[in-house]
Amino acid sequence: MTSGDVFVAYQISGQDGPDLLMTPGFVSHLEQAWENPNIARFLNDLGSFSRLIRFDKRGTGLSDRGVGVPHLDERIDDIRAVLDAAGSKRAYLFGVSEGGPMSILFTATYPGRVAGLILFGTYARTVGASVKDGPSLRVSPSPCAYSQPSE
C-alpha cells in the first residue's frame, strides 16, 4: 500500500471483531515479529478478540527505507492510509512507545475514525518540547480514559 509516494507495509491477522491498529515503536518488522515466540503469543492474544492491523512505519521493517525522518503529519497520514487500505472505518489505536504520539495526534485529528486509544510505554511529548498556550488534556483516575479540562 502506498501513502503518498512511499510504500508502507501492513498486515491483518486475528478474528472478526473490532479493528485494532497497533502503531509500532522505534523499530518494527511485520514478519520477524512472528519468529519471536513471546511476541507471536501476544499478537495471537490480541487477534483472539479483534481484527489486528499492524504496519511497519516508513523507514523500518518491510516499508520503504531511506525516507529520512518523516514529519508527524506524514506519519499520521500513514495511519490513515493503512486504515483505508484495510477497509477500516473506525478502529481502536494501540500506540506503543514512539507510536504513542502518532496515535494521540491521529485521534485528535480524526476523532471519528477512532473508537478508543490505548497507550503503552509512551509519551505525549518529548523532553524539552515547547508547548503552546491553550487547553490541555487531563488524565482521569481511570488509566483508560482522558477528559478535557473544565473551564
Overall pLDDT score = 86
- Beta-strand residue fraction: 15-25%
Weakly predicted, low-confidence segments: 137-151
The ordered string of helix (H) and strand (E) elements is EEEEHHEHEHEEE
> Major beta sheet, specifics?
5 strands, mixed
Structural write-up:
The chain is α/β, with parallel strands linked by helices and 151 residues long. 26% of the residues lie in helices and 24% in strands. It is built from four helices and nine strands. Strands 3-5-4-6-7 form a five-stranded mixed sheet, with helices on both faces. Strands 1-2 form a two-stranded antiparallel sheet. Strands 8-9 form a two-stranded antiparallel ribbon. The C terminus is likely disordered.
